[in-house]
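Write out this protein's structure.
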Amino acid sequence: MKRYQVFVLPLITAVLVACGGGTAEPPAASASQSAMNEVAVDCSLRGAGVDLHGCSLIGADLFLDNLTRANLSGADLGGADLSGANLSGADLSGADLGGANLINANLSGANLRGANLSGANLIGANLARAILTGANLAGAILAGAILSGATMPDGSIHK
């Protein structure tokens, strides 16, 4: 929808001017219109350091993807397949990973502050030094997961 809003305002202005019902000056952009004109995040990008914040990646196939240091803050990854993916140092703060498959994923040093990991499969995942403060781990499967040095949801450091 954002793509069309960029073109609609000038089009309406042109029609009004052609019909004699307006001025050639477009109205001043409001703060919300300025925000709409920002460059959108390309949610199809993959690779180390990509910016996918706020993207809807529900059920996405990210099997074995390299997403080291990627910005996935606020992204919706519910039910996504991230098995074997490298997410070391990634920002997943506030992300929804409910029901995601993270078997053998590398999340070492990842920021998962406030993330939803309810029902996620984290069997064999590397969460060493990960930040899990305020994360929802209800029903998450952590069998064989590496948690050394991880900051747990209650703020304690796992030994």
